């Protein structure tokens, strides 16, 4: 779909000739204002002093006839092998490295690639005073509507300078999104507040030095469908060694379940009666996943929805890990939210978890304990997985995951020394399926997600998950409705599968890398 938008953009300008004259690197001429001595002095000064890190946006970077730029753009648009790239950090279309393209088929792109490798690399070395390696990485990138790139630093291997050259339409309005956001940092070199947003103007070059401070992002594109954010981007390299910064994972305090409660005050009779629990257990045993609709008492749902709307919400970061508003649980001592939190942390709830999943507590290795958080799904919220977070999931062991969203209970289980992760969703209306906001589960060394759990009104979802399966919250885009969805997320640790063969079946199913389709129990 996004690729079609790119082609529509070219057609709207009437681009297209059958002849493909070769563009030599000399066809691309750097604007003389960026070659004088004063500019070089400013760059070298910025490398030592510019905050929050050295970065430059150079307008009218190439002094060439517009047709030269259009020929490169046309070949990019017509290139047939754009790949959709999507994970917790980004969503966009991207080409392979430009050096792999057939020079005879794509002479304009080849000429631009040679310009990067020769003239531009020499120019950058001269103005910066830094010796650059022959290696130059370059790819085409296209961000269409809802695409974005979340905060990251680019600090990989021997990258020294990152660059982005834009082929965007003019005028590119601020309302289209797609800006490159530059972030301030704290004393731990974590991104904090927004420093500036740079609009991706046509024939401009964004250039910055890569470091532990070079936090940046690409804002969600929300412009017209025939107006994508098209660029060629990449990195110049040096032999400078990387100083990796080991960042701690996000760890929440764990609480031991206590007390008995009456769950019928919260959950519907369909969820709690003995026949339903047996049916849920049978479905879960055979498929390791389950979806139960109409999970809550309506009066309770309406009451907690009202309480959430007037609750104390706190924005949580850092933005390289997450951005969302969380409910201050410590500030709640009475009312329906406090009672539900108490119920979720009760021994009664743990008994329910064991019945549905066929799990028991591991009494020797670890005692059962829980973590809990409440957040809301609104435009712009997300979580990002770091290597340190994946390691923490491995340490925590396997899990059962529960959500409640929009009058629904969702439940996802990690097999074999489990962590049960429950999320409870409340809201006024159905969620737009194109808005993101789903919990996505990825497995170590498997390219495609093994499961996507979108917000589904009035249901309980139960899915088995291994310890090498990691969840993240997919970025919520501008298609989200104004009314938020409130999510209560509960993790239960210290469970083991009651049958070893169930564990093996689950592991084999997930290792296939196929996306799970939930079994529905109405």
From TrEMBL:
User: In the UniProt record, does the keyword Oxidoreductase occur?
Assistant: yes
In residue numbers, the region (Disordered) covers: 1-23
Per its UniProt record, the required cofactor names are: L-ascorbate
Q: Which GO terms describe its molecular function?
A: iron ion binding; L-ascorbic acid binding; peptidyl-proline dioxygenase activity
One GO cellular component this record assigns the protein to is: cytoplasm
Keywords, ordered alphabetically: Dioxygenase, Oxidoreductase, Vitamin C
Among the GO biological process terms of this entry, one is:
regulation of translational termination
Positions of the Prolyl 4-hydroxylase alpha subunit domain: 42-237
Record field: compositional bias (Basic residues)? 1-10
Protein name per the record: Prolyl 4-hydroxylase alpha subunit domain-containing protein
Natural source organism: Ancylostoma ceylanicum
The beginning of the lineage is: Eukaryota, Metazoa, Ecdysozoa, Nematoda, Chromadorea
